[in-house]
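re: ur question from the group chat, yeah i did fold both. here u go
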Amino acid sequence: RHGASKSRLIALRLTMLSRLGSRSPLLTSTRRLCAPALPKGVLTTHYKKIDRATDERWQDIDMERFADETDLLIVGGGPAGLSAAIRFKQLCNEAGLDYRVTLLEKAAGAGEHTLSGAVLEPRALEELFPDWEERGAPLKTPVTSERLGYIPPWFPSLNLPLPIMSGTPTDNHGNYIVRLGNFVAWLGEQAEELGVEVYTGQGGVEVLYNEDGAVVGVATNDVGVGKDGAPKGSFERGMELRAKATLFAEGCRGSLSKEVIEQFDLAADSEPQTYGIGLKELWRIDPAKHKPGTVEHTAGWPADNNTWGGSFLYHLDDPDGDTLVSCGYVVALDYTNPYLNPFKMFQTWKTHSSVRPTFEGGERLSYGARALNEGGFQCIPKLTFPGGALVGCAAGFLNVPKIKGTHTAMKSGMLAAEAAFEGICALPEAEAEDEDEAPFVGPVADLSPYQPAFDASWVREELYSVRNARPAAHATPLGMLGAFGYLGVVHYLLRGKEPFTLSHGGADWSRLKPASECKAVEYPKPDGEVSFDLLSSVALTGTNHEGDQPPHLTLKDDSVPVARNLAIYDGPEQRFCPAGVYEYLQPDEPDGEPRLQINAQNCIHCKTCDIKCPSQNIDWVVPEGGGGPAYAGM
């Protein structure tokens, strides 16, 4: 249907844009990253927020975009997006059709922005590739032993064992400990072998609509724009990729996914999504302490009883014989105290007497953080809209008590791919292409069968059965103890068949209390052995962005941070961000005003700021392609 020459043309164009927007040398010290200063009081210069039509600096710039057409476009190269691409190509091969599939991934390489614990339930993988073992999937560490504990906030010296009952969400029998970034890279290889065109270093920055309001693709980001919003000599317009069907697979709080949810009012019949932030490190430990296949989880301290928080510690069986463990701490973002600091909570957890010995004498290799959807069944939006659909964490399919979402994300991508295949097949046959014809504006495929397919799937059934686990922490004055009571009694007996559905009670940002109503939280200073400071941690993410570009942490109103967030909440951005992006600087003059500084180069793309800002003033958008963290098997 499409000649090889056209595929080579788009590849050449996207590669050129990726190189123009390539990252600067990686951070190699603990110094703070910096970039040319903006005028005083100016924080937002990104073209997603500032109209360039009224800026005289842009008046003589050619703003025409190169456009190309594909059959199925997928925005995001995580487990959901790649599973969708693979499943679609499998259907093409079965039917003897050669539909074109194009996948955009903002990371410089497949899996480089992927971060998760992770213990993988292979159910969806077995459906996608029954021969996954023969194909060399990097699932090398079956779970052989597991422990679940509770560290009471009022007796933090304890680590009380909790029962793991067979068949309950906490049972990991038959699952595998994985480095999810490596698994995503493997999925990328499988997709490319099937003929999927995977373009890394390319972020989707704009949704394209036709006159009827249907989605007809996306545009990639411009490159060569200065921090002040002016065109540089290297300026190149992004590309338009137009498609008969577009799947948004950007992960949790994706910028374009957020746009289409609002554009089509997809969340009208669901609760506001509630989130958590997961912080993770990869360690090499003493071989005498290494127990491959061991899974350990705790709930409780350093979170208090009213804050959903817990840890993971997984011993990997590395093919090269390395003695690796991945560890992390997850904090729900519906916490109320603006002085809470998730990064410091994670570092504090590692000092617990039952945890610290694992890390003593070891070496910390990597660090990262990522927001995750925790709302579950109540918060799933409508999944389809004219021309497209949401898959994976763009919609929110994490099973919170299982602490797993990869298998559900993959399955959602497969279901959407099947609907997209049928919808594209049903479109009228296109006429012979004319090189001078106008860009594609339709007709688009009907993806509406994806919704009933999801509703009939095991994903929906699984999420419905645990729908009350997460909100149970707020349903009674008992806090986390109430959630334990629900899981240990109600869910164990009824398996989700109880005749009620609890509410999460509102958006995370709305729960934050004014600083005047809260006490500051004191955390122990890092010891440099098992706990560390923030900047040395960010250095381990490999994060960097081109310094001279508009900050991608945009503000709806540049005056709000000081006037509201600092004045009322004592600047929570500087504590909930796990990468030191936001800091309030005190004035040099006695009568001066404090100001917010945004260190956008530090951003590790976790999206926490977009979620937790109490003024909902921060809007995370995609930076120049290839920027961000460079996780290695996280």
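okk and heres the other one u asked abt
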Amino acid sequence: PQVLSWIIQIFLSEILQVPVSIDTGGEGGPQGSVSFYDPDNNFLYASSSYYYPGLEKANSVGDCRDVDLTTDSCFHYHPEVWPGQTAEVYQAVQEGYIEQPYLSGIVGSYDFYIPSYTVERDTTLSSYFGLQGEQHRRKLAETFLAPTTWGDYCKDVSSNNCTTDDDIAKRAPENQAEEAKYHDGENYDGHFRNTTQNDCDTNPKCTGHIIDTPCSWSTYTVQQLFQNNILLSSDGPEGNNRGYSYSAIVEIVRAAFATESDVMIVWYFPDPLLDQFDLIPVTFPRSTTLCEENRGTVAEKCSSNITIQRGNKEGSCGYIGTPLKKLFASEFGRKTEREPEASRSPAYKTLQDFKLSGMEMSEIFREWTLIDPEGDNREAVCTWVATNLNQLLRIVPPGYPRIVDPLLNDSDNLQYGAIGVASFIGVVVLITIALTNHWKEETPIKTAQINFLNLILLGYFFLSVGSILRGLDDTVGICIAEEWLEVLGFMLAFVPLLVKARAITVIDREARQYRRVTTTQETLYRIVAGIIGLTIIYLIVWSVVDTPTIVKTYALADERTVKSDISCGKAHALIFSSIRTGIEALIIVVTLVYAVEGRKVRQEFNESQTLAFLAYSHFIWGLLRNVAINVSFDASTQKFNAIISFIISGDTIFGLLIYFFPKFLNVLTKEPDNKRPVNFRKEKEKNLFRTWIRR
């Protein structure tokens, strides 16, 4: 499966731009790195050949990125399943976490193999006829000896514990990993030795040694040997059948050929080992349907009861080539179908159609053997993919690979325009602040209360900065800042006007009734501060409860071209947007009411007409903003934000023109005090009115 996984990883990653990770499976998370792109090629073998919980996990979570892969295995696709897993696959299908299996394209087969030089020494060993029966017990015991690990060799065989080079081991192993090796290319050739299992003189039940696979593989070694009366047995460290791991078997074969020792292994085609070494299959009785039906299940083969492992006579035939299958987590296909067509991954359909024959696998293995049989095999895989790319491209689904064309490109000019206009408005606001404070002793400014004017201008400045941010591409920070600046900007621009208008209207109403009213600027400031404080609390709640996330959306422009868009996603956008719109509308309406009610206030303090125009202006621009937000039109987020930026900029500049420009005009066109006739009656009334507001 390693080579298959690499081909798939290369093809999906580099041709179809689908990220692929490879999970070796196993309890406690992935057992090692097998990525083609691992710079060190740190390949570690899986502890389990078929780890169904990894498929079950992928089916339950959908996206393996949501799984802590340091503790859990998770994968959507298993590229190669042998017939011995039929019962387990059927059970997984019944439980619903995998689909019905698909054919992989490979016809695989197991066999018993011995080196060609072993056949040359004794041709009878190449057939089960030369292996069967008591008469061949001693021959098998003396021919097929037990492989010895590096650690055991130095401890039990070497006369000096490998302290000096003895042509088999150059040195002693330096760690536990080396101790467990059966062959090390540079320092340990390997060794096969007699054990009590092989000694027929002292052990009447002696047997030769066979290198069996783990019991979860699609092999039936114990059943075949016992039922055919072949006196061989495995004595490895893996499972109840005493098999050997994949890596151990590879090392044992290399040790056998390095020392020209006789060995018998159970192995499969296609695999590079058969291309790297001249191994000859041993013939067994011909496979039949009856025999295949009587093979042991994985549970039986892995049983601790040797009688169950041995099965029955009917299942003792040799192997036959069988189509291999591939497995998909059920959620893989369902999730793919649920995805919008524009963002749908081609991986599922591509993997369904992907097939590789055993001969094609052998081509890769032969190339690997020519390049570096014991080293990095990635060059052979990469060469095969490059050579057969046209063949692989035939299985690419129509419309793939997608060409992603970001929508933001068609709105760049609009964005730049929005930023430019907003920046200009920001400069105008700053100039207005400077002029207002410069003329703060002038009557039009003084009567409007300089502190209130500064609060209003601060609000307009926030709005202009928010407009600038609207012209930028969305990020989480920008999304939050936009909301804060726009909401605070509106409240600062309008609440001081509302509070002041209410105070003047109430004072005027009570004065006409000859009732005394006492208020202070501090009281008005506290009211403004209280409302702004509530606004800040609302914004904090919004930021925590409905924190924006960056959402990527895609739309098909044609069969292959995808328009991509990036926007701020808000889970409760409708709720908070409705609250914001409602509060803003309420403030505008209340301001308008006070503006109408305050028409009879003395002219020096009367801003009713200005407030009315200001309320109308904000209402119109707010209406435009809400129409833009709620009416669906075909535009990118960047274009939409630019439009909102223009609307906010328009609202801001109109507010400045309506409220501040007339005051500046009065300052510039007023007559000097020494040239104006004094109306003592008006001055008396004015001073009387001022007494109602105690500084």
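fwiw on the second one: The chain has 28 helices and 14 strands. Confidence is low (pLDDT under 50) at residues 678-695. idk if thats what u expected
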